[in-house]
Amino acid sequence: MIFVHVKHYLNREGRAYFDNTWYPYVKERISQQKGFINIENSRDLSCEDCVNIIVTFENHEMLMAWAEHADHQKVVHDLDIYRTKGQRWHVSLDGSVPELELWD
How many domains does the chain have? Predict the structure, then answer.
């Protein structure tokens, strides 16, 4: 399995858009991708703007097929107008997350 940990930093309007529109749409689209296993999200208690996502795929090739898909590019850019800073991401094979200071 391969895990992608993503941090999106969004303003208040963006967090509402994420919860009500963006995440449900992405969850529906990504769940149809070959090799998809799971997607989950959570809030970062130390940073109000931060929304965490963990996506799991069977392998790197299937993850890359999603990453290169036109739907993926669109949904990533749909959050751009709400960003308070750039997104961060980390890929791991065991689900481990880097130390917090390595994210920034």
Answer: 1
